[in-house]
Amino acid sequence: MNRIILLAAAASAVVVSGYAVAGPERIAFPEGYQTKFVRYLEVDRPDRKIIRIMYVNPEANVLAKPNAEIPDGTVLIMEDRPAELDAAGAPKLTADGRMIATDKVGAVFLMEKHKGWGEAYSADKRNGDWDYAWFNGDGSRKADAKFDGCFSCHQSRDKRDFTFTYWKSVADGTHK
Amino acid sequence: MKPMGICAQLLAIGLAAAVGTAAEAAEITVTMAGGMFSPPTVKASRGDIIRFVNDDAQAHNIFVPTKGFSVDLGKQDPGKVTTLPVAKAGNFAVECVIKQGMTMTVEVNP
What gap in Å lies between CA B89 and CA B104, rounded to an integer? Predict the structure, then answer.
């Protein structure tokens, strides 16, 4: 009986705290995101010969306002795809100078925010209430993924709710 | 003097246009120093190349967040040069990934 009480108490503590455990495990891979999410930007990365496709979950996207904090529950995805290459190994370009993405997905990086998530991190590390996750192209979680680089790089955008593209897209009105 | 035939005239016009286009394409230099872009605004034409020179003591990273133009040119150490061809008309913003608030704008004419 005592063991049952202890187990129940432990379970309750996790539920009450909501997201007591920090880290990528609290972010689930969003199945079907390519069709269910809003694709709001493509970023060419010529030095790596990849295109980075940016998505946002539609239920949060409709709530986003220019120059305001990004809505709680927002899920941002950065999907890396190899570029089409010519015979010399250089990225092919459209008439507008844009790279062309292949259908292969190399990696899927997620940012997700929920109220209180940032409390799991020290003040000098936390990026508001965001956390990060890294998945392989097949949706499996990347083993031994490191996220210190995510936190430190996104720190440079603390005035844009720690995002490089989404905040700007909402401000420009190009996120829909 | 015998006047040029139609074909010769068309060929001459085409060659003039090609030479004219090549001559008009420019290389525009933007310097990064003191955590700022100089100049802060650039007017370019389609086909021009913007040349970013890092004259700063820290690394920078050219990033264009504007839809339709968006590109990340990667980390650029002090002393290095990176280039951005502009193939499309329109206006876009340029930022440094590393230094928040380091921004400039580019206006590309057709």
Answer: 17
